[in-house]
Design a protein that fits this description.
The complex is a heterodimer of chains A (235) and B (251). Chain A has 235 residues and is mainly α. Chain A is 80% helix and 0% strand. Chain A has ten helices and no strands. With 251 residues, chain B is an alpha/beta fold. Chain B has a six-stranded mixed sheet, sandwiched between helices. In chain B, a hairpin with a 2-residue loop joins strand 4 and strand 5. Chain B starts with a strand and ends with a helix. Classes of the chains: A mainly alpha (235), B alpha/beta (251). At the A-B interface, helix 7 and helix 8 of A face helix 2 and helix 3 of B.
Chain lengths: 235, 251
């Protein structure tokens, strides 16, 4: 009994201690949501079309085009192979051009969006490659236009893979966003580093890591669930 | 109805190049069921794909419904294809759409208003005997049922021609007979011209009015086949159709 009481006491003290930073924590969570939210939007609005184009430009596909494929393919690979911090730094001039400043949460969202487009487009390409080629043949025989083939056949058959890919991507965007303190982007990761690690407040660091774990777990859970519900390919 | 004039098609380049179709001419009469038979690799599936220009021939003309398909491109060709239905050996249904959803696709492509679409989908599903399976996904259907959905999908736009690529080759003999009955029924009641590619002699001889034999990309002969018309008296056929349907649904 004493043991239980002391654990409860400890947890109480722990929360009281952590909660003195609650404003900062909420602000950090908000910044993470802004950065990751913009990256997800970029992934869907640009990554999906780029990934689709990557797929369609492949040999034997609808828009088979070796030059465009090679160009997009290497662009995506180059962006993905950059050490991320160096990508952030080297993009500063472009960031300044787009949002007017190179510092802050919005500025941090720019390089994050670039990596988001590269990451998700590759996963989109992979999901589309799994769609049986015969489905597109049936589409042609029905007189589908190219846009109809993409929206009524390709995306419909690949939808569970597209959702799963977006889930995986979102989690890596969260991971990338943790280092955005370097350009004043803030966020949960930055909070953990500045308050927890650099000020030797291990309690704060542990608390933030727990928040991250809960966040990632719930995203993965909902993504997997949605993907499973959308997948009717097996009974 | 369908007229192929000296069509040729080759695949590959350089030393890998081979002649899949070699100067084939063929006329298929309106309202008939025409079979194309041959060993695998004889070019029969390619010939079928030339009829709706899924494969564009290197030379020669394809005329369907009085329209020269080989002279069309883009939008006009897509529109012409809407009056040519096609079914396949492996059904090629969209697996993330229900039976209803699959049959609805060609109507959506043709931008048919929703209310008309609903009516038409139910109508063709009833025609193939699957009105009670509308809400099921392909994975929940048997092979024969999947092929019926594919047939309903091909019929949705009221085509004048139905191209069948090995339509029964992945089905057991009993289900095969059921599908052939459906095809015969389509031909008799709707007057749709049907072309069937198959490597199974019984399939072709059992249902076709005329049969063309292919070998190495050439048409070596075409013969009339009266068995197709004279087969099973009307009454017996009707019963067979119903009882096979019953037995198929119970599996």
């Amino acid at each position: 009994m004493d043991y239980v009481n002391s654990v409860i006491q400890y947890l109480n003290d722990y929360f009281a201690y952590v909660m003195q930073y609650q404003d900062e924590i909420w602000q950090a969570i908000g910044q993470t949501f802004v950065m990751v939210g913009i990256s997800i939007a970029a992934a869907i609005l640009l990554g999906l079309p780029v990934g689709t184009l990557l797929f369609l430009c492949r040999k034997g596909q609808l828009y088979a085009n070796r030059w465009l494929f090679t160009l997009l393919n290497s662009l995506v690979n180059v962006i993905r192979s950059f050490p991320f911090l160096l990508l952030v730094v080297s993009m500063i001039p472009l960031t300044r051009l787009i949002v007017g400043t190179s510092l802050g949460t919005l500025a941090a969202a720019v390089p994050l969006s670039v990596i988001a487009v590269a990451t998700y487009s590759r996963l989109v390409e992979q999901s589309l490659l799994e769609v049986p080629k015969e489905v597109l043949e049936a589409a042609s025989s029905m007189g589908a236009s190219k846009l109809q083939m993409i929206f009524k056949f390709l995306y419909v058959e690949a939808r569970s893979g597209l959702v799963l890919g977006l889930t995986t991507s979102t989690i890596s965007f969260i991971s990338y966003s943790t280092v955005m303190g370097i350009v004043g982007g803030g966020g949960v990761g930055d909070f953990a580093i500045r308050y927890g690690y650099q000020r030797f407040e291990t309690e704060i660091m542990v608390f933030t890591i727990i928040i991250m774990i809960i966040l990632v777990q719930s995203i993965q859970f909902s993504g997997s669930l949605a993907s499973r519900l959308l997948d009717k390919r097996r009974s | 109805m369908i007229s192929l004039q000296e069509v040729s098609k080759s695949f590959g380049n350089g030393s890998d190049r081979y002649q899949a179709i070699d100067a084939v001419s063929l006329d298929i009469a309106e309202g008939s069921i025409h079979g194309i038979i041959g060993a695998s690799g004889a070019g029969k599936s390619t010939l079928l794909r030339i009829m709706n220009v899924l494969e564009r021939p290197d030379s020669g003309r394809v005329v369907v419904n009085g329209q020269e398909l080989t002279s069309l491109g883009g939008r006009q060709l897509r529109e012409a294809r809407r009056s040519i239905g096609m079914i396949f050996q492996l059904f090629q249904l969209v697996s993330n759409r229900t039976a209803y959803g699959n049959v609805s696709i060609p109507l959506e492509l043709a931008k048919v208003p929703k209310a008309d679409r609903m009516k038409r989908v139910q109508e063709v599903l009833r025609f193939v005997g699957l009105e009670d399976k509308a809400k099921l996904y392909p994975a929940q259907l048997s092979g024969g049922q999947k092929q019926r959905v594919a047939i309903a999908r091909a019929l949705a736009n009221s085509p004048s021609v139905l191209l069948c690529d090995e339509p029964t080759s992945s089905l057991d003999p009993q289900t095969t007979a059921g599908i052939l009955d459906v095809l015969r029924h389509i031909n008799r009641t709707l007057g749709v011209t049907i072309v069937i590619v198959s490597h199974e002699m019984e399939v072709v001889n059992g249902i076709c009015d005329a049969v063309s034999v292919m070998e190495d990309g050439r048409l070596i002969r075409t013969y009339q086949n009266n068995a197709g018309r004279a087969e099973a008296p009307e009454q017996e056929r009707g019963q067979g159709y119903r009882s096979r349907r019953g037995s198929e649904e119970s599996d």
